[in-house]
Amino acid sequence: MVVATYSPLVLASVETIFSDDTDKLFHLELSGNTQKVAFKSIPFVPYGRIDRWLTSELFELRQARSQQAERAIESARNVMETKGPTGEAIQNATQALVESALPANDEFWARWTYFAEKNGVQL
Q1: In terms of Cα–Cα distance, which of 59, 61, 52, 48 is closest to 13?
Q2: Given 4, 58, 114, 117, which is the most exposed site by the fewest CB atoms within 10 A?
Q3: Please, how many CA atoms are within 13 Å of residue 51, restricted to the half-sphere of its CB?
């Protein structure tokens, strides 16, 4: 049987039944600028939590968030590293975070809100 998925939930669900003797895990990835698809066998590693699956080599996310939220957070971090950030830069980064649908309970908001207020911007 061949099962194809893009879901970390499916992979986490098979952790307890996957057998190196009878099962294989393959990863399809675009290689280089040629846009050719590589089909390679990789070892099955149980990551446990879904967020760890998302940041594994299979899903290749740097964070367990949407790619849009990941980009917005990276931009906000760049503002945080700027010496003397402007209120406009902070507001623009805040808008990007909101537009990325970063949930209100995401831990990044606490750091971002503190940073903004420390720099004179009320969110």
Answers
A1: 48
A2: 4
A3: 3
How far apart CA 85 and CA 60 sit, in angstroms, is 31
Q: How many helices (H) and strands (E) does the chain have?
A: 5, 2
Strand 36-42 versus strand 25-31 pairing type:
antiparallel
Nearest to 97 by CA among 116, 112, 82, 78: 112
Could you read off the pLDDT of 62-83 as tens digits, one per residue? Answer: 888 888 999 999 999 999 999 9
Nearby residues of 102 by Cβ (< 8 Å), 6 or more positions away: 65, 69, 72, 73, 108, 109
pLDDT at 114: 97
State which amino acid sits at residue 75.
S
